[in-house]
Design brief:
Elements lengths: L1 E6 L2 H11 L6 E6 L9 E2 L7 H10 L4 E4 L2 H6 L1 H7 L4 E2 L3 H8 L1 H10 L7 E4 L2 H8 L6 E5 L8 E4 L2 H13 L10 E5 L4 E10 L3 E9 L2 E3 L3 E4 L4 E4 L6 H21 L5 E11 L2 E8 L6 H5 L7 H10 L13 E9 L24 E5 L2 E3 L5 E3 L3 E9 L2 H12 L7 E2 L12
Parallel strand pairs: 1-2, 1-4, 2-3, 4-5
Antiparallel strand pairs: 6-9, 7-8, 7-9, 10-11, 10-15, 11-14, 12-13, 14-17, 15-16, 17-21, 17-22, 18-21, 19-20
Helix pairs in contact: 7-8
Family: Belongs to the GARS family.
EC number: 6.3.4.13
Pathway: Purine metabolism; IMP biosynthesis via de novo pathway; N(1)-(5-phospho-D-ribosyl)glycinamide from 5-phospho-alpha-D-ribose 1-diphosphate: step 2/2
């Protein structure tokens, strides 16, 4: 098979790495890719939102299967465009990708189908939002309705912060049109857990749980980011939690989308909060998480092409999804200043130390080749240093050991990824 992966981050590097293990795959292309992906796939200089060019390329190269990694093209309807041309593609159609594309839609869906989530209200008028906040309990959560690179969520400790947040999202348009509608949500306390799943429209198969670290600084301080590190499985995602989620969250979500005439095919990412009243949905994503993919996919023992094809063909019930009974930790190496302002273009050294290593991965997120052919930084999140071991503590130690193997100017990371493991 010829396979095309669309995207350019650490998630896509993890997907390409999994695809490369498949004996069914002859050639992998990635558009637009990055310097790390270039070791496994031929890089194609087409942007993820250039649908017509991607379709033309898929036809020209006789691509048998396309995998969409990123949220923007999914929400924009890339799957519909590929399917209209008779091309086989993995990911939700536009009318199903709205599960991530609109937080207001997903909250209304959960309310309608009694899927546990935080109490909320949706607003399109900033004055109405401000009036509501006057009587609301603090702290409170403000969410831009649309896509905002994982950063469109503000946790406000008091009324003053909440009012400033409404101005930032709805009036100043910090997240652009994503802030045309505002979701104001009750603040939930508990542990956050991420669960990825494969879905074929009716059947859902759960992957191993993971736990993200969204804030930029140690101790969960600083601004929200796309994710500064992750570990899997989460010791807090117990058998009892799983049984509850299977019954009241996972399958009900798939059934709800089907009932709405929006059958979901692809990956649903469930962001969960384990509250005192039980698990509740924080958010849905319509694709692999980043860096969740980096800690879950390395332990997938199935051929990923088999699984994804079964999703597209509506026969996921035939797949026995299996993962190695090991643990994985990913520590993100970022550019200092992320997620606000940072410099790019610094040479990265030490990457060769990962070659031939069995339990270590270096997933490239924001990298490219400079004119001299050297690998340089090209984003806020640069690398996902990932290690696998028999248990989480060993994996954490190995991952942090490996962060020292690579160097670049303005290298920044959190030092407490997976620290919650000690409390489990």
């Amino acid at each position: 098979m010829n396979v095309l992966v669309v995207g350019s981050g650490g998630r896509e590097h993890a997907i390409v790495t999994a695809v490369a293990k498949s004996p069914r795959v002859d050639k992998i292309y990635c558009a637009p890719g990055n310097a790390g992906i270039a070791e496994l796939a031929e890089i194609v200089n087409i942007g993820a939102m250039e649908f017509d060019k991607l379709v033309a390329f898929a036809k020209e190269k006789a691509i048998d299967f396309t995998i969409i990694g990123m949220d923007d093209p999914l929400v924009g309807g890339i799957v519909d465009v590929f399917e209209a041309e008779g091309l086989k593609v993995f990911g939700p159609r536009k009318n199903a990708a709205i599960l991530e594309g609109s937080k207001a839609f997903s909250k209304d869906l959960m309310k309608k189908y009694h899927i546990p989530t935080a109490a909320y209200e949706n607003f399109t008028d900033p004055q109405e939002a401000l009036a509501y906040l006057e009587t609301a309990k603090m702290p409170i959560v403000l969410k831009a309705d649309g896509l905002a690179l994982g950063k469109g969520v503000l946790i406000c400790e008091n009324l003053e912060q909440a009012k400033a947040g409404v101005k930032e999202i709805m009036e100043d348009k910090k997240f652009g049109s994503a802030g045309n509608t505002l979701v104001v949500e009750e603040f939930m306390t508990g542990r956050e857990v991420s669960v990825l799943s494969f879905v074929d429209g009716k059947t859902i198969k759960i992957m191993d749980s993971a736990q993200d670290h969204k804030r930029a600084g140690d101790g969960d301080t600083g601004l929200n980011t796309g994710g500064m590190g992750n570990f899997s499985p989460s010791p807090f995602y117990t058998k009892e939690v799983d049984e509850f989620c299977q019954k009241y969250i996972f399958q009900p979500t798939v059934d709800a989308m089907a009932a709405e005439g929006r059958p979901f095919t692809g990956v649903i990412f469930f962001g969960l909060m384990l509250t005192e009243e039980g698990p509740k949905v924080l958010e849905y994503n319509a694709r692999f998480g980043d860096p969740e993919a980096q800690v879950v996919l390395p332990r997938l023992t199935n051929d990923i092409i088999d699984v994804m094809e079964a999703c597209v063909d509506g026969r996921l019930d035939e797949i026995d999804l299996q993962f190695e009974k090991r643990a994985t930790v990913c520590v993100v190496l970022a550019s200092d200043g992320y997620p606000v302002q940072y410099e790019k273009g610094f040479e990265i050294t030490g990457l060769e130390k990962f070659k031939g290593q069995k339990d270590y991965y270096c997933f490239h997120a924001g990298t490219k080749f400079d004119e001299a052919g050297k690998v340089v930084t090209n984003g806020g999140r640069v690398l996902g240093i990932t290690a696998t071991a028999d248990d989480l503590k060993q994996a954490r130690a190995k991952a942090y050991e490996a962060t020292e193997w690579v160097q670049f100017a303005n290298k920044y990371m959190r030092h407490d990824i997976g620290k919650a493991i000690d409390e489990a």
